[in-house]
Amino acid sequence: MICLEGQQAGLSWITVLKKRQNYRQAFHQFDPVRVAAMGDDDIERLLQDTGIIRHRGKIQAIIGNARAYLAMEENGESFTDFVWSFVDNAPQVTRAATLAEIPTTTPASDALSKALKKRGFKFVGSTICYSFMQACGLVNDHVTGCFCHPGGQDDPQVGH
């Protein structure tokens, strides 16, 4: 997921979503071992693939991020546990009544971004990390009146 999130830098998310099947094919279903083994010839081939975003840095980031992910595993660090540690291992619930109140970054996404970069990940700025956190359920940004928000429309705290 973090690989796709990084592709949206400077683009709309719908652009990336429309290409996700092509990304799965181009990057071996995101198998980190296979992606990490990709080299310069693969990059050149992918730069010609109209089914994905043909940005050298973003393609290199997917490969480099697979290598960084594997390095974490080799050092005994679970990526899942690592990511969840930034929200104290429980989904964080935003209390926003309108979409305009939902943040694009938080101190947690700032910290996650910094920690990922320290481990060698690329295209993982705070906004991308926050989007990743939303997509993976680390944060629940449904507005308070939404049925997907804890308590949904029956929540006595809606709007408060």
Automatic annotation (TrEMBL):
Which InterPro entries does the entry link to? Adenine_glyco, DNA-3mA_glycosylase, DNA_glycosylase, Tag
Q: Which domain of life is it from?
A: Bacteria
- Which EC number(s) are documented for this chain? 3.2.2.20
One GO molecular function term of this record is: DNA-3-methyladenine glycosylase activity
Family matches, as SUPFAM superfamilies: DNA-glycosylase (SSF48150)
Instruction: Tell me the Gene Ontology biological-process terms attached to this UniProt entry.
Output: base-excision repair
What keywords tag this UniProt record? Glycosidase, Hydrolase, Metal-binding, Zinc
**Record's signal peptide:** none
Gene3D superfamilies according to UniProt: Hypothetical protein, domain 2
Major enzyme class: hydrolase
Binding-site list for Zn(2+): 142, 146
Q: Which NCBIfam families match?
A: tag
Matching entries from PANTHER family are given as: DNA-3-METHYLADENINE GLYCOSYLASE 1, DNA-3-METHYLADENINE GLYCOSYLASE I
Record's protein name: 3-methyl-adenine DNA glycosylase I
Q: Which organism is it from?
A: Klebsiella pneumoniae
Name the gene that codes for it.
tag_2
